[in-house]
Amino acid sequence: GANPMQESRDVAAAMLKELGQKLQAAMAEGGALNAIGVCHTQAPAIAARISFEENITITRIGTRVRNPVLGVPNDWQALALKEFEDGLAKGQKPADMEFVQAVKAGAGSRMELRYAKPIVTQPMCLSCHGSGDDILPQVKAKLDELYPNDKATGYKVGELRGAVVVSRFIGYSNN
Fold first, then answer.
1. Phi and psi at residue 119, in whole multiples of 5°?
2. pLDDT > 90: what percent of the chain?
3. 0.70 surpassed by pTM
């Protein structure tokens, strides 16, 4: 089969691209209020669909979490976020950054291949993830309704927002 590392890279890129396109379309159609639905319902659905199609696990995590059910990083994902923050601080370009780890998974000879790609705050993100005047009152009201524990505001353009993380098992496989 293809290189598992490259497959993880391709899948993460596909997820980011699809999400970005859907967000831009939703913003153009009905502004930030309309775009909330993309992150709230469509993004998890896209992740679930790709996970099923590719037989991997893909999800989004945040540096500051909006949805505590989905977005909380585990240990290796927190490590990836830390590496990305350090890289950005050193002036590395987000497009060049990725996190890769292969670890023995449980009994037997299976390895878990872990991959992460940073999500960096873009100008369009500020209307839901910015601070103060960036977020319209009706948008703020909707966010408060959907995410009572929201911590994911106060971001600036270029700041690390989170990551797309991909996990898959390699080793003895059934194909």
1. -110, 115
2. 78
3. yes
Q: Which residues, 6+ apart, have CB-to-CB distance to 101 below 8 Å?
A: 76, 113, 114
Helix (H) or strand (E) holding 137: helix 137-146
Q: What is the pLDDT of residue 174?
A: 46
Task: Mention every residue, 6+ apart, whose C-beta is less than 8 A from residue 150.
Answer: 66, 143, 144
pLDDT of 64-75, one tens digit each? 988 887 788 999
Distance of CA 4 to CAs 1, 42, 79, 128, Å?
8, 26, 21, 35
> 3-state class of 107 per DSSP?
coil
How far is residue 140's CA from residue 17's CA, in Å, rounded to a whole number?
26
- Biggest CA–CA distance in the chain, Å, is 54
Distance of alpha carbon 59 from alpha carbon 49, whole angstroms: 11
5-11 long-range CB contacts below 8 Å, 24 or more apart?
5/100, 5/113, 5/115, 7/54, 7/56, 7/168, 8/56, 8/113, 8/115, 8/166, 8/168, 9/98, 9/115, 9/117, 11/50, 11/54, 11/56, 11/58, 11/166
Task: Please return the burial class of 106, using the count of CB atoms within 10 Å of its CB with bins 0-12, 13-18 and 19+.
Answer: exposed
